[in-house]
Input
Amino acid sequence: MGQNLYHKLYDSHVVGQLPSGQDQLFIGLHMCHEVTSPQAFAMLRENGLKVAYPERTFTTVDHIIPTTIEARQRPLQDKISEEMFTHIEKNSAENGITFFGPEKGQQGVIHVVMPEQGVTQPGMTIACGDSHTATHGAFGAIAFGIGTSQVADVLATQTMAASKLKVRKIEFTGKMKKGVYAKDVALAYINKLGVQGGVGYAYEFCGEMIENMSMEERMTICNMAIEGGARCGYINPDQTTYDYLKDLPYSPKGDAWDRAVAYWNSIASDADAEFDDIVIIDGADIDPYVTWGITPAQSVKIDEKLPAITSFDESEHLVLSEAYEYMGFKEGQDIKGVDIDVCFIGSCTNGRISDFEIAADILKGKKIASGIRAIAVPGSQQMQKEAEAKGLDKIFTDAGFEWRQAGCSMCLAMNPDKLKGREIAASTSNRNFKGRQGSTTGRTLLMSPAMVAVAALEGKVADIREYL
Amino acid sequence: MIVEIKTVKGSGVPLRGNDIDTDRIIPARFLKCVTFDGLGENAFADDIAALKEKGEEHPFRMPVYQNGSILVSNSNFGCGSSREHAPQALVRWGIKAIVAESYSEIFFGNCVSLGVPCFKIDHKGAEKLLTAIEANPSQEIELSIENKTLTMGDLKLNLILADGPRGQFMDGSWNARAGLLVNADKVAEKAKSLPYINNFAE
Output
C-alpha cells in the first residue's frame, strides 16, 4: 500500500523520539501574529534563549489593526493594541525575523499574506499560534495551530513535541452546483461530520470537485477543517498549486523551480494510499448553506427549516437549546427571510480577491437595503491594491458598502469593528460562537460571500440562486 | 525545573454543556494583552454576564466553587481558537486539572504544556460526577495520574488519559522545551535534509 501526504511529510520531518514517547517534529515554516506571540518571545527572553532559525519565521499584524485609514495612524488610539503592534514589530526586528508590515504594503491577515507572498509552499510542516493555520494545507502542507508555549518551543528550537494523527479522506464527487461556493462545501462537510468529527484526524480533501477548485477556493475548504475538529486539512498539490506559486516573491526561481516541483510531486498521496477512514460527499447534495446556531455545524440549506431538537441525539440537546435561546430562533422556522443588520465580507476564510469579485458581480449597479451596515475588508494590502486596480472598491462603495483596509476586522472583533447589542450579521467568517463578533449578545450567520451580497441587497437572508 | 505531576487533589467545579469553545472561556477582547497575568478574573466573562442577566449564577462565580480546582464538563471542551489564553485563564482562576468527555486537540495540547492534566470520562461517568459535585461542592476529589482514577468519597471512577501525556506528567517532561533544546544538532541535520530549506538551491 502507498502512503498519504500526511504520513510522508510527518515521517520526513521527525527529528527523533522524545522521552515522553512523542515525536520531535521539525517545523518548516513558522508564522506569528501579534496576539499569540508576545508571551512566547517573553518566555525566550526570560530563559536566555535565542530564536534558532529566524529565517524560518515570518510575522504580520492582523487581529488588532483597525481597518479605517484614520484609525490606523500610529500610535493606535487603543493603548493595548498599540503595545501589541509594537511588540510584534520589535520582536521581529530584534530577532532578525521578516515582518510583513503596513509600511511596506505587505500587511494583512496572516493566512492571506503568507500564501500570496509564496512563503507557504507544498511539502512543509507549518505552524502558527492560530487555529486557522489549517488554511495552508491547501498547498499540500501539514499546517496546524499551536498554543503560545509551543510558539516559544518553535522559536527556540524550530521543533515541537507532536503525535501522529489519523487521516480521513473526504472525497467530493461531481461538480459544484450553480450558486454553490467553496464556503458551502466547507459548511456541508462540517454539517455532515460535526464539530467534533475531526478530533484526532487530519483531513485529506480530494475528488473531482476539489481538483477543479482554484487555490483560493481550496484555502476556504482547508481553513474550516478546524471548525470540524480536525487540526489540519490538506489537498494534494497539483498543476493548479504550481500555477499559483509560479513567480511569487518567495517561490523558487529558475532551475530551483524544477527541483521544487519534483519534490512537491513526490509528496502527494500515492494512488493506492491508505487512510484510517474514507467519507464520500456527493456534490449533488450540496446547496447554499447558512448557519443558524452557535457552532459551525448548526447549519441548514437555505431552503430548509430549522431542525427539531428531538431529531438529534440526546447528548446534543443541551447545546441545541442553548443555540435556539441565544439566537432567538424557533424550531421549524425558515432561515430564508431572517432580517439582518450587518454584512461582513472578509477574513482568512473568504477575504481573497475571488471572494470580492464574486460579491462585486452581484452588487454591481445595485444598492444594499436601507439600514444595513455593510463592510468589505480586504484580506491583505496587496489584494486590496489589486481589487482597487480592478475597480472593485467603487462597486462596493456605490452599492453602499464601506471599503476598508486589510485586517481580521469583524471576524473576531479585537479591533474597532464589532456588532452592537443583539445585531445579526451575515458573515463570510468562520465562527458563529456566542459573542464572537464583539457583542456579547451579537449573532452570526455564516455563509458564502455571494450569499452575504444578496443578504445585503435584501436586508434579510436570501437565496443566491434566485439571482443567477 | 522538572515538576512531576502524579496526583491532583481539590474540590470540583461543574460546568455542564458540550462544545464550550475558547471564545467562551476567554472572550477575544481579553486577548488584548502582552502577558497572561490577570486573565483569570475574566474567565467565562460573557457566560457569567449572560447568566446574571437571567438572575442565574455561573459556577465560576458561585461562592461554593470558589476554592474548586478540578473542572468537570461534557464533550468537545475547548474547541475553536488555538489561544493558550484559554487554559491560562483557567489556570489563573485556580483550575489544576480537567475531567470531561472529550477535548479539542489544540486545547488539550496547550493544557499539557501548562501541566494541566485533561482526563477523559464516559458520558455516564461525567453525569455522575457533575451530580455528585453539585450535591456536595466542597468534597475533595483525588485524581491519580498513575492509576487513571478519580476518587470522591465513595464515588470511584475510571478515567482515560493516553500513555503519552500520562508519562509526560509523571516524569515531568510535560514541559517539552528542555527535551527539544538538547537535540539542536539533530535538528540542524534534519533541516539540512529537507530540500526546501535553501529554497531548492543546489
Notes: The mean pLDDT of chain B is 96. Helices of chain B lie at 22-25, 45-53, 85-93, 105-113, 123-135, 163-171, 177-181, 184-193. Chain B has eight helices and seven strands. Residues 7-171 of chain B form a domain with the Aconitase; domain 4 fold (CATH 3.20.19.10).
